Amino acid sequence: MSIFYMMKSCSLFIALTYFSCFLVSPSHSQCFLSKHWSVYMYNGIPDSQIDAHVRSGDDDLGHHNITSDLGYKFSFCESIFENTLFVGDFSDNSRSAHFHVFDESIGEIIHCLIGGHADVYWLLKEDGYYLSREFKSDINDPSWMFRGNWE
């Protein structure tokens, strides 16, 4: 066997070993050629319970109760075509809202690099729903971006 052939085989083995680490390691590295997102939803309405039903074209995440003490979180790998869409229906005793909890425009606002991870935060308040790049415990923090009213 020639030295050239052995070096080439060794280089190929090292490259394959390196890339296989991305395929089998935990957490968001499973999104090797795409973006990993976590979406958090919080209830900013005192003494209320909000029913949240989130789904995409592929996945129905079911109904979840969001209280002021208990939020809801889900994570996913974005499509490599960046056309992932999750919609949510939210309701309490007196109002409802239907909006995109994740789509291309929200991805552009929050921003995430390919192979990276980013968080999306939603806050449901008396006057509507708000979006943020980072968690703000103060529901009146001006960095919460107003996105729409209850219906």
Task: Offer a quick outline of the entry.
By secondary structure, the chain is of the alpha+beta class.
Structural write-up:
The protein has 151 residues and is of the alpha+beta class. 19% of the residues lie in helices and 40% in strands. It contains two helices and nine strands. The strands form two sheets. It has a five-stranded mixed beta sheet with strand order 4-1-7-8-9, with no helix packed on it. The protein has a four-stranded antiparallel beta sheet with strand order 3-2-5-6. The model is unreliable at 12-28 (pLDDT under 50).
Helix content: 10-25%
Number of strands: 9
Order of helices and strands: HEEEEEEHEEE
Strand order of the largest sheet: 4-1-7-8-9
Characteristic key phrases:
4-stranded antiparallel beta sheet, 2 helices, 5-stranded mixed beta sheet, 151 residues, alpha+beta
